[in-house]
Amino acid sequence: xxxxxxxxxxxxxxxxxxxxxxxxxxxxxxxxxxxxxxxxxxxxxxxxxxxxxxxxxxxxxxxxxxxxxxxxxxxxxxxxxxxxxxxxxxxxxxxxxxxxxxxxxxxxxxxxxxxxxxxxxxxxxxxxxxxxxxxxxxxxxxxxxxxxxxxxxx
Length: 154
Known about the structure:
By secondary structure, the protein is mainly alpha-helical. The chain is 86% helix and 0% strand. The longest helix has 37 residues, at 59-95. The radius of gyration is 18 Å and the shape is elongated. The two termini are 34 Å apart. Mean pLDDT is 77; it is low at 1-45.
């Protein structure tokens, strides 16, 4: 399998796994926070690509994972856009003269959109899991645990 193909497949895998790192922390118009989130996503993507390269995917596995990712990609993108729009609206409402009830309602909407996006991401991961061999799944689990510990120690 060519390095370019591996890289393309890995980028497709990374998006659903890293989107949540961008949206977990609300953005209240803080440029430093945006820069920090972007850097974290870039580092996460690089690490994630390394993780999947270490699994030695076959061409068939690569093809299946690409198909799974493409199947869910549009839904994830739309969900992410809806979430970003709602979060931005909430950010604007916070600095405006909206009532607490209006803010709570919008916050509830943002939380629901986050939940919906997480569900889409989770379903994608479940389908990808089905493609991996038990050995690859075990290795993936170990590598992801190492990644989580590495991020925790920063």
